[in-house]
Amino acid sequence: MHRYGIRGDRMKSVNEFRTIMTGNDAVAYGAKLARVKFISAYPITPQTTIVEKLASMIANDELDAKYVEVESEHSALAAVFASELTGVRSYTATSSHGLLYMHEMLHWVAGQRLPIVMSVVNRAIGPPWNIWADQSDTINQRDTGWMQVYSESNQEAMDTIIMGYKIAENSGVMLPLMSMEDAFILSHTSEPVTMRDQDLVNEYLPDLDLKFRIDPENPMGYGSYDTPDGSFMEFKKDMIDSMNNARKVIKEETQKFNEMFETNYGALIERYRMDDADYAIIAMGTVASTARFVIDRLRENGLNIGLIRIRYFRPFPYDEILEDLKNVKSAGVIDRSVSFGLAGVTYSEVISGLYGRINIPVSSFIVGIGGRDVRIEDIESIAETIRNGSTGTHWINVKRVV
Amino acid sequence: MPTSIPKEELMAPGHTACHGCGATLAMRYVLKALGEKTVVSVPASCWAVIPGAMPFRTLDVPMVYTPFAATGASISGLREGLDIQGKSDYNVVGFAGDGGTADIGLQGLSGAMERGHNVFYIMYDNEGYMNTGVQRSGSTPYGARTTTTPVGKERDFKKENKKIVADMMIAQNVPYVATATVAYPEDLIKKIEHAKAVHGPKFIQILAPCPTGWYYPPEKTIEISRLAVQSRMFPLYEFIEGRFYLNKSFKPIDVSEYVKAQDRFKHLNEGEIENLRRYVEERWNQLLEWEKLYAGPVKA
Amino acid sequence: MGNFQLIEMYEIRFHGRGGQGAVTASRILAAAAFAEGKYVVSFPFFGTERRGAPVTAFTRIDDSEIYLKSQIYNPDIVVVLDTYVLRTSNVMEGLKENGTVIINSPRDPADFNLDANVATVDAVAIAVKHGLGSRANPVINTSMLGAFSRVTGIVSLESVLEATRQNVPAKVKENMDAVKEAYDSVKILKREEIR
Amino acid sequence: MVLVPVSTVSTRNHLTDSWRIQRPTIQYDKCIRCMICWKYCPDNAINIENGNKEAPNERIAKMEYPVIDYNFCKGCGICANECPEKCIDMEFEVIE
Lengths: 402, 300, 195, 96
Known about the structure:
The structure holds four protein chains of four kinds.
Chain A (H helix, E strand, L loop, with lengths): L16 E6 H11 L4 E4 L6 H12 L6 E4 L3 H13 L4 E6 H6 L1 H9 L5 E6 L13 H4 L7 E4 L3 H15 L8 E6 L7 E6 L2 H7 L16 E2 L9 H30 L7 E4 L6 E6 H16 L4 E6 L1 E3 L3 H8 L4 E6 L9 H10 L7 E5 L9 H12 L4 E4 L7
Parallel strand pairs in A: 2-3, 2-4, 4-5, 5-7, 6-7, 11-12, 11-14, 14-15, 15-16
Antiparallel strand pairs in A: 1-8, 6-13, 10-12
Helix pairs in contact in A: 1-2, 1-7, 3-5, 7-9, 10-13, 11-12
Chain B lengths: L21 H13 L3 E5 L13 E2 L5 E3 L5 H14 L6 E7 H6 L2 H10 L4 E6 L39 H7 L4 E6 L3 H12 L5 E6 L3 H4 L6 H10 L6 E4 L2 E4 L8 H5 L10 H24 L7
Parallel strand pairs in B: 1-3, 1-4, 4-5, 5-7, 6-7
Antiparallel strand pairs in B: 6-8, 8-9
Chain D lengths: L5 E2 L1 E2 L11 E5 L9 H4 L6 E5 L7 H4 L2 E5 L9 H5 L5 E5 L4
Antiparallel strand pairs in D: 3-6, 4-5
């Protein structure tokens, strides 16, 4: 079977090596490579092995950082907020309800313009209790001022931590970044990962230099109250401007990373077999990865279909998607999350980007909620619905519950 | 100058606290005791508003504003962040009200104290949610009228006794725990000096009378603060690394003298004042027991 | 047997019970194939099972990067670490035509009467002999991989030995001896021989 | 460059004299320079200065003495209430 877009495993440096590891280990090594100095977290399945790995690195003197296990996720992000404000590169990781518990602090971190990177293992929100893959947790946080990246492989999960700090700390961005892995499908799955060379990472990612860090020589109030006629509105608008500015920075820094590490990450999106595609699937995370596999099979059967994989949900790649959809007959957007009263959140984002600019049938698909496996046949049925030029929302592989 | 209070002022004038604000005095004394190498974290509270709107700051030390429940965790992060950079000589102070400490921030406080960070947690206790307009908190005493325990026809004042966070901190065996109040700034500053000598978490609960929420004239703040101690409504004590010292150097007065000075207790009848009197006596006896239980050498 | 050629992706499903090391087995197999330059993915069936409960683990092996992230529904090979599982789960479910089942059992392959290539290895006896685990709870996963190598040829004995050496937490030599003994003692019955 | 919400201007530039309804006045000829008014001022609106010849006696005239900063005094009256010599008068502010 012929494959496209295979990432080479050529080694850039003699210090790079390739080994097998889980997504959570890859993420922990990403944080280590990014030279994080302070880590605070609260355990939650399936995030736990990230912080366990980091704690063990510190215990074995492989990582020069302080790890503080706090008593809640709210406190984890509050502690990371505070340490970052002192000028120390800080990191945390969470999942699902932990992320929801952090919600208030998410806004606080972004509003204070702290370039923190956090890993989130996407897990369903209860009830009922469910620990499996579902992106509803992070989709719920889309309006908190954090950049959001969804990875499709363990390698990408590692590299995104490194790129994430670089982008977040850019003086024209200064917004935090959330890096996502689908629960278990990446977090607990072992696959080959190239361990980056620390020297090369150091060259790519300099030390944090927070201009407004806490300094008793220069006392300031951080996040004081502001009035309707003060600058409050301007602060919020500036966050939007910075989020827009991040699009350019993401492209530049991803390009730089690709050159230095011989990777070929797309910036906001990745395209797969879109050049001659009549139909397009739009997806995020590991669903997109499975879609690549299925697209190869569909192509063998004569269906000219391609994939637009969204890497950055925030800032959202409206223009990039529009550019690709100009040439297709119809498209479908896959969401592994639920917004009650709306259903497909990514779908509605895509539609708002297209509105008034092109008019093709675009359908919405809800898959894999609560970790329901997304199978080859599920993507095949999605492709068939797209080919039929369908619109509307389709729930895939839903059972009749009696 | 015939006072031992340090002259250095790290809280500037021009802030926007109410007339006669006890919380402001608490901050002024704490910073005098700690000096300029100090970083303060303040959650939602009166003190998040006292410095005024942007672009103003009223402290001559960095002040970090955090959400309501974040004080304990934020001082943990500040401490570790500074230590990582070798700045261990800076004092890290959480300065939170009683709502942010006894209620919404209790989990974060307990966690920070348990983890043993070298921090100060100052609870300025004005016995209610004064910033939002005088609502009941866990730290509001029995008998007090607040806007959420209003005295209507049914006389629905607060029926529960004060949740005393300092006592909880002793139960948690925090290395330094003390109570203080603004009427005795020398005592307050001395306690912070004692706390400074202890490496680890330090908790100090400062009674900060609030003319706006306790319904008394603003010039009476110090007087009320003094009566709180003398009436034993707010006993002063110190718990230093397992040893408990109760300040008994006051000539006790009857609870009614304290109660009658504030309109928040105006509605109480003699029977209800008797309830308070009994409560105060029981608690005092409990503290005397602690003094025996955690007996230490005579203090210098 | 031993004539597998990697032209398509191989999908292997492990059935065991919590504590037997099915998940570790799937990972050591991936490590062995990875050492031979293959692309691999190894993952457990993501459950909340505790020790003793049935567990499933998966390995995919391919010449090129593996994008398929779904569970394995049509395995080429099924490895059964515990015959108890034969009663509780349909281990044959979705097995490819002419697929292979490798069972931890002292019995003969023909006894199982399965419509597949069947191999049996007395992994419990091997584990006990080499002091792996306890009699109540023998650790048999490395023995199963020795048998796997011999039966399928997807990974060489040398690769399995090396992956075992690198991945077992203790008793390295004993585990490697068990791999070799299982490799030598596995009994194989091809499907066409049944018919 | 981005907008970061930090406050840098000291409230020393923010006068609160307009908050005052009652105005305290120290009668220096009765003031014993105990500095209790300074100690208890929540608005930090009493400064310490050196030597004022208006004093009960020559010894006290040489001492540091309290000066109310009317730019910041909100007129809460704590100083007058706590003054042991009762030498601080509170009078309604007259706007001239």
